[in-house]
Write a structure and sequence with these properties.
alpha/beta; 27% helix; 21% strand
Length: 332
């Protein structure tokens, strides 16, 4: 941990003339804001880094509050006899989920939200844990099977090298499979984990990756586990989440992943994804999807990956001849 230079004064934006010494310590997974943090800054952060729960995150049986003021579980009021006809007809209050944890030792939040925090508090000393992220060992193209990547796919690999924590919004037909293979080929000296959502993307994606890299790719999921034996591993989030407490999975996520790739990252949710993403200490992490801009809660998909740094739209691929505009056929 690098000490703060003495005498450095930081004035957080939006405060009432406070001059406070604040520092931000960033690790691959979580960041911590420490120092003499004004209460109004803490309030601004907790208000900004939260989102409204739409019923798809965290809890299947949520605690709700009804007009009678009683907390209920599973839709049943503990005082329904005294409040008959009141509790059943009232609406629960909206529930907000915070991505910030305020502790006596500071304010903790996922590292991907650092750009949002800096917009609120201004520039502060930033201290990073660990060494600098590794750089590509070789050019991403051509691939071992002879495939030559498009220019924008090569540029995407270069962007990952420049922004080790990033999101990519890539239109349909961009070629995410080829991009993933290009990343695995470029970072030839690093151990890589590719996470997908579901068994079908796992089986199809692993087969395609093996064909392009001409090397075995490990698989975790679909009744198969080959974590320790391969440099590149593809896994389902369902299997990683279910086995996250197993020693072999814990050690692998903590010590043996240098590059983390998430395919279709717009489906990230705190319940299933955050425990796995928070355990993985990969210094380079990239998430890509064709519908990243349509994610219901942008803060959730940014939490462990940061903001969108590359945006390729359908019109660009249509203009280059790699995609086509589908005909619109409407029934009479």
């Amino acid at each position: 941990r690098v000490p703060i230079p003495r005498g450095l004064v930081v004035r957080p934006r939006g405060t009432s003339g406070h001059e406070e010494l604040v520092e931000l310590t960033v690790s691959p997974t979580y960041a911590r804001l420490t120092g003499r943090i004004p209460q109004d800054v803490t309030t601004m952060l907790t208000d900004a880094l939260r989102y409204r729960d739409d019923g798809q995150f965290f809890m299947q049986r949520k605690l709700q509050r009804f007009q009678c003021g009683q907390r209920i579980e599973g839709g049943r009021c503990t005082r329904r006899r005294a409040h008959a006809g009141v509790c059943d007809s009232s609406q629960p209050e909206p529930r907000y989920i915070s991505l910030v944890n305020v502790t006596p030792g500071g304010i903790v939040f996922p590292s991907g939200l650092v750009p949002r925090v800096l917009k609120i508090i201004g520039e502060v000393p930033i201290h990073a844990h660990g060494e600098d992220p590794p750089v590509p060992a070789r050019a991403p193209s051509p691939l071992p099977d002879g495939t030559v990547l498009y220019e924008d796919q090569v540029r995407a690999v270069q962007i990952v090298a420049e922004h080790p924590r990033c999101l990519m919004s890539l239109a349909t037909n961009f070629g995410k499979g080829a991009l993933i293979a290009g990343l695995c080929h470029a970072y030839a000296d690093q151990k890589i984990l590719v996470i997908v959502d579901g068994k079908t993307p796992l089986i199809d994606g692993r087969k395609l990756l093996e064909e392009r890299l001409r090397t075995p790719v490990g698989q975790m999921g679909a009744v198969r586990n080959s974590l320790p034996r391969c440099r590149v591993v593809m896994a389902t989030i369902q299997t990683l989440h279910a086995q996250r407490h197993a020693t072999v999975v814990t050690v692998y996520l903590r010590d043996d992943v240098d590059l983390l790739i998430v395919d279709e990252g717009d489906v990230v949710t705190p319940t299933q994804w955050f425990p796995v993403l928070g355990m993985c200490q990969a210094p380079i992490r990239v998430s890509m999807s064709g519908s990243m801009r349509q994610a219901p809660h942008p803060m959730v998909v940014e939490a462990f990956f940061g903001p969108i740094v590359m945006d390729v739209k359908d019109a660009e691929l249509i203009a280059s001849g790699r995609s086509a505009r589908p005909p619109g056929l409407m029934p009479n």
